[in-house]
Amino acid sequence: MTTLPTVFITGASSGIGATYAERFARRGHDLVLVARDKSRLDNLAARLREESHVAVDVIQADLTQSADLSALESRLRDDARIGILINNAGMAQAGGFLDQSAEAIEHLIALNTTALTRLAAAIAPRFAQSGTGAIINIGSVVGFAPEFGMSIYGASKAFVLFLSQGLNFELAPRGVYVQAVLPASTRTEIWQRVGIDVDTLPEVMEVGELVDAALLGFDRRELVTIPPLHVAGRWDALDGSRQGLMSDIRQAHAAERYQP
Fold this sequence. Notes:
Layout: E1 6-10, H1 15-26, E2 31-35, H2 38-52, E3 56-60, H3 66-78, E4 82-87, H4 102-130, E5 134-138, H5 151-171, E6 177-181, H6 190-193, H7 207-219, E7 224-225, H8 232-247
Parallel strand pairs: 1-2, 1-4, 2-3, 4-5, 5-6, 6-7
Helix pairs in contact: 1-2, 1-7, 3-4, 4-5
């Protein structure tokens, strides 16, 4: 009998992370759940153990704290049972660029980009050596939309997409699957934490629908899954245009329009 890989999920106490935990538990996977709120993690873990009869480990950690992040990296490197990493933990941006303090900027980047990258880097060598494993990175469609006025958050999510595409290029030949999931507005607590009433937003996807769509993309081994995108060809066209742009870049000389 094949043993299913354990799934390691950050930001697992609520929202997208908790829903991923429920879905993978139903599939029979053991779990490692990471978040700051241990009481909520414990309650979720107890329910999933009872409902799905899986093993659930709980780790209280703040991914912006060096000691906590280092401990998680060690677990990912050393625990060979972990075969799926879901980099879900993240935060939104309150206010525009001019409203940001140095501390707020550093905190958002540390959580949305640095922690995600370090956790992927901790587990990728083991995955590559074994020729198996999956990394799911949660981005956002805001990474396509500088006009939304969430410049730092959007930039962090653009980073997540680029990193995921780069990791796929490097790791897919080694048997490692990397998926970028790009939600739009989803009914989670991320809005409340930055002082936005989610009910004032014009269109919001329920979190269960988001995760179920993302998991369908996961099962299909999509490289980029955008659940709210209704015309799949738009992504294909965008990526094709990007590749066309790269083919038109000639490095030896400036383009004619820039010649004196």
